[in-house]
């Protein structure tokens, strides 16, 4: 019995050390916008935008990303931020936070693949895991669902500087709802979150590669203050460790923010 317990302790230690080494080698960092590159990327987008800037914050929650954008933009009157938050309680917090910000418009809807009605589940107001999945909490409410394409068309938006998506496993559905906008190259850059919750929708990164196969975008992973681009899907990418990925339009100067990584015969990713 003691031998079995000792073996379990050793295996647990090896698991933790092995996982730490593996995620470090992959460039997977902590989910902290200040260090994982999210705020850095936002700064790069804002500095590269030549004129009036439109940002879409999908899954805005309490508005930390939007607040950071407002804090670093050179001229507030040249930016427009559309923040989407379906939860009534969380949206009240969001609306109060930006009550005096004319650059921010809060929209009471969820972004998805299709238009209609849906159920939204919450653990508590402002919780980062609230979503369209019942696994997110016991509190449930009916919400309006629409697509990026519908919003862009109805708002007569010609160009979006950045689309940020953080919808707890529903990011692929949001991307599919932006298919026309992506095909037409209306969005300069997309940042989306990827983690184990994608499995709730039977989705993986390979689906994103398929989605953009006929569209003018490159897919990459945000790794600190850089982007790793992947020209094609590899199974090592779909490990469901939490990270942020980006789609950058092929002709965008933002492509200079990163370099291409490819996988060798040992399934090791290295710069090309």
Structure description:
The chain is α/β, with parallel strands linked by helices. It has one domain: Vaccinia Virus protein VP39 (Rossmann fold, 3-Layer(aba) Sandwich), CATH 3.40.50.150. The protein is 29% helix and 26% strand. It contains 8 helices and 13 strands. It has a 10-stranded mixed β-sheet, sandwiched between helices. Strands 4-6-5 form a 3-stranded mixed β-sheet.
Please tag this protein with its features:
Rossmann fold, globular, 13 strands, 272 residues, 10-stranded mixed beta sheet, alpha/beta, 3-stranded mixed beta sheet
Rounded Rg:
19 Å
Total domain modules: 1
CATH level-3 fold name:
Rossmann fold
Mean pLDDT: 93
Distance between the termini: 51 Å
Q: Could you tell me the number of beta strands?
A: 13
Tell me roughly what share of residues is in helical segments.
25-40%
Continuous helix count = 8
Largest sheet: 10 strands, mixed
Oligomer type: single chain
Q: CATH superfamily assignment? A: Vaccinia Virus protein VP39
Poorly predicted regions: none
* CATH hierarchy class name: Alpha Beta
What class do helices, strands and sheet pairing give?
alpha/beta
What is the general shape? globular
CATH architecture: 3-Layer(aba) Sandwich
Helix/strand order, N-terminal first = HHEHEHEEEEHEHHEHEEEEE
Could you give the order of strands across the largest sheet?
Answer: 3-2-1-7-8-11-9-10-12-13
What percent strand? Answer: 25-35%
